[in-house]
UniProtKB/TrEMBL annotation:
Pfam (any one): PEP_mutase
Lineage: superkingdom: Eukaryota
Signal peptide: none
Protein family: Belongs to the isocitrate lyase/PEP mutase superfamily.
Protein name: Phosphoenolpyruvate/pyruvate domain-containing protein
Source species: Glonium stellatum
Catalytic reaction(s) noted: (2S,3R)-3-hydroxybutane-1,2,3-tricarboxylate = pyruvate + succinate
Length: 311
């Protein structure tokens, strides 16, 4: 093989990472990235089946589904990293944005968090400025660390990324809007970008005008909108968010809220009638097809296996 052919073979064998793919999506200024919230492998598979180009691993959904607990800081780095790694690797060409809460400690722990998420295949993570005993951004009573502590978290993540030569994106989230106001939130986001953040995330905007202002002030830094239905933020479509200047919109409750309604309805039917009332088309095989049956049987067949020929 000639040197040129060898180089071409290496190029073909090196796929674009999920983080690089997210950077490519962000480079298209005419497009807004829509990332539905997924809380487990099944909801992630459904979002992939529908054809989304990006996914979001919700921290609240992870706490609820993996731990059965409220989003009050119960989840540890290991809880979140393990969950993110599973979701990110269901389809490594689709970027996963993942909640990383406060980074789970001081600068050394934040660096460890960035490294763990990088190895897990996460495309982007967001780190916030709440104290360690944090809570969901759409609950009251939040307390924040000072701006120096916050920027040290972002700087530690950026330094860890540089050391790893990783393309992972760092999203700086601030909850200051509800505690100290818009101007302080802007100062915090600007300081976070100066410390190495790639994307700004103002949590809990209460008006469209606040959304437009933060996008204008932070430009050219991309700004993310957290579209939590029935929370602090007014409901917006991706097109409406894009008109305000947002580059990414996440829908954390997109899967877990309808799952609650459907699962509860089925449980009530069993209790009251003794029947689930499930649709006839949702067979065991249908379930397995959603979570990769065809891919799994193809791998077996390609390796010479015959065990799954008659599934």
């Amino acid at each position: 093989m000639t040197e040129a052919n060898g180089n071409n073979a290496v190029a073909r064998a090196t796929p674009v990472s999920a983080a690089q793919r997210l950077r490519q999506l962000l480079s298209d200024s005419d497009k807004i990235i829509v990332a539905p919230g997924v809380y487990d492998g099944f909801s992630a598979r459904i979002a992939l089946e529908v054809g989304f180009e990006c996914l979001y691993m919700t921290g609240a959904g992870t706490c609820a589904s993996k731990l059965g607990q409220p989003d009050l800081g119960f989840a540890t780095l290991n809880d979140m990293r393990e969950h993110a790694e599973m979701i990110a690797n269901l389809n490594t060409s689709v970027p996963l944005i993942a909640d990383a809460d406060t980074g789970y400690g001081g600068p050394n722990m934040v660096a460890r968090t960035l490294s763990a998420y990088h190895r897990a295949g996460v495309a982007a993570l967001h780190i916030e400025d709440q104290i360690q005993t944090k809570r969901c951004g759409h609950l009251g009573g939040k307390e924040l660390v000072d701006i120096a502590t916050y920027t040290s978290r972002i700087a530690a993540a950026a330094q860890a990324r540089e050391k790893l030569c990783s393309p992972i994106l760092i999203i700086a989230r601030t909850d200051a809007l509800q505690t100290s106001g818009f101007d302080d939130a802007v100062r915090r986001l600007q300081a976070a970008v100066a410390a190495g953040a790639d994307i700004a995330f103002l949590e809990g905007i209460t008006t469209r005008e606040e959304g437009r202002r933060i996008c204008e002030i932070m430009r050219p830094t991309p700004v993310l909108l957290n579209m939590v239905e029935h929370g602090a933020t007014p409901s917006m479509t991706p097109a409406e968010a894009q008109e305000l200047g947002f580059r990414i919109v996440i829908f954390p409750f997109a899967a877990i809220a309808p799952a609650y309604a459907a699962i509860r309805e089925s449980m009530v039917r069993i209790k009251e009638t003794g029947r689930t009332g499930l649709e006839e088309g949702f067979t065991p095989k249908k379930l397995f097809e959603v979570v990769g049956l065809k891919e799994a049987t193809a791998v077996d067949a390609a390796a010479g296996g015959v065990m799954y020929n008659k599934i």
